[in-house]
Amino acid sequence: MSGKSFRMRLPATSANLGSGFDTAAVALDFFLEIEAEAAGEFSIEASGTDREICSRLENNLIVETYRRVLNEQGARVQPVAIEMRNHIPLGMGCGSSAAGRLAAIAMAAHFGNLNWSSDRILEEGCALEGHPDNAAACWLGGFVAAAMDGRRVYAAHVEPPSEWRAIVVYPGEALATSAARAVLPASYSSEEVVTNLQSISMLGLAFAQGRGDLLAMAMRDRIHQPYRSALCPLLPRLLPLAGRDGIIGVALSGAGPAVLVIVRTEAEAEHACELIRCACGNDQASLTLTRFQPTGAEQGIELKASTISGL
Q: Across the beta sheet with 285-290, what order do the strands follow?
């Protein structure tokens, strides 16, 4: 019912994973947490990462998406008081927009009494994102391969190996997705396409079967990373680490500029971080060690603090 409070937790995501451009993503265990109550006017109380930006009502992705969905459905726009705890950095390629849009859509379905199914919320989120990878991984959790046919979303997901860890390497400045897309070419050679097809054919199997030995090849990319390297200077520094000392895969996280480094075990993470810092050299970078999140967005649960750890 629209009078009841709304509560949801949504995980961060890392999309593309090298070869899986606009098709593959994996959920990470740091979160956007939202609580909302019906109110006389809109308000946001935000804490955590990028608190100042998240707390603004003007040009706020969540509020604008919430209004848009209700207006398009001809439903009353019920003002809400939002309490937000955000651990997903904005503009870093960790799925902040997918998490925000899905939270807003689910919130609109709740307060607007839209009676939307989980599939309908996901489809709306993918349509607004323009591609299904981040939204599907955020909503479903785990490793996800996804495709769209019109507005219909097809997605398959598996739980990544529990022993694998991810290190997210953040540069000093964010990057707009629109800028990262603007550098991509309008067409590709058959060699580039075949290389990516060979890699993406192994990517899901590597996650499903725990084949860390395949991951570096499965994340090999010729479609987007070579063109984005100039905007994401950490990427060419870190790509050569794949296959060394427990580092089993390296890729741009989403559209960047953050880089995702996958490590075989947590015991090998400390040495991997030393290699990463050495490779980054004088480039400003911060590191976060995280796990892969096997479950996706959860509504109505008791919200807990993020488990990520800075390194």
A: 247-252, 259-263, 165-171, 285-290, 309-310
- Angle (CA) 27 48 110, round 5°: 65
Mean pLDDT of the chain: 93
Domain ranges of the chain: 6-159+293-310, 165-290
Please state which of the four CATH numbers 3.40.50.720, 3.30.70.890, 3.40.50.1220, 3.50.50.60 is assigned to the domain occupying 165-290.
3.30.70.890
pLDDT digits 0-9 by tens, 78-92: 999 999 999 999 999
Sort residue 308 into left (φ over 0), alpha (ψ -120 to 50) or beta. beta
HSE on the CB side for 95, CA within 13 Å? 39
Residues 6+ apart with CB under 8 A from 155: 122, 132, 136, 140, 144, 145, 146, 147
* Residue appearing with tokens 């593309």: 16
Structure tokens at 252: 């741009």
The count of other CB atoms within 10 Å of the CB of residue 51 is: 13
Q: Which CATH architecture has domain 6-159+293-310?
A: 2-Layer Sandwich (3.30)
Is 192:298 a contact under the CB 8 Å cutoff? no
Q: pLDDT tens, 17-44?
A: 999 999 999 999 999 999 999 999 999 9
Tell me whether the omega of the peptide bond preceding residue 257 falls within 30 degrees of 0, making it cis.
Answer: yes
